[in-house]
Amino acid sequence: MDSGNLPKYKIIEDDLLNKIKNGTYEPGTLIPKEMELMAIYNVSRPTVRQAIKVLVDKGLLEKRKRRGTIVKQNKISQEFTHTIESFNDEVKNKGLVPKTHVLLLQKETPSEEVCENLKITKNEYVFKLVRLRYADNQPVVLVTSYVPYSVFPKLDQFDFNKVSLYETLDSHDCPILHVRRKLEVLQADETTADLLNIDINDPIFYFHTIGATKDNVRAEYSIAKYRGDNNSFEIYINR
């Protein structure tokens, strides 16, 4: 590394930047702690902190309480605000590799919230499907979906680690044709933070989705919690 007359913090900044670009420090991973960097570069703590601050200000690094300094993720632009598309398809269209881990799939009695959004009674059963979804092995969104038993009684026979909910409904003559979504921005609770690999109280995008099939039958109510640090959303409006 040709340092020339560069200040020491700039030399560290450039070296860290090169290691981020060449994949030595991958998105979502921790860079060495301050004490380690002091030893690596043979400099003082203020010099290390100045170099890190520059990269934090540039949006390349992020300090996390109790964890250290991580390489920030590139934001994934989500376009489902104006189109009906499966998560897998949307992630693949961005050149990323999707993965799904099913945390729960069970038949249960619906809560008042679920009854209201699916327009069903407390006497009707629903399937509750909880999935943690990834892009390039990084957790992106935690999704809890409710599907009325009366709409698709064989839902629990499918492996949603491997197949898409929307594609499964499509192939069994129950396509989601209309959706209504509501967005909130909330703080992550302990469980959500642990699953999405973020800190407690970090911001998350909180989407409520109601999906309807032909004849306007409500077939899905989903709650999706997206990480705020690696997701953005595109909204198209026509006049």
From TrEMBL:
Source domain of life: Bacteria
Pfam family name, one: GntR
CDD domains: WHTH_GntR
Keyword Transcription tagged: yes
Annotated SUPFAM superfamilies: Chorismate lyase-like, Winged helix' DNA-binding domain
Keyword Nucleus among UniProt keywords: no
Keywords recorded for this protein, A-Z: DNA-binding, Transcription, Transcription regulation
GO molecular function: DNA binding; DNA-binding transcription factor activity
Domain HTH gntR-type: 6-74
GO biological process, one term: negative regulation of DNA-templated transcription
Protein name: GntR family transcriptional regulator
Species annotation: Companilactobacillus futsaii
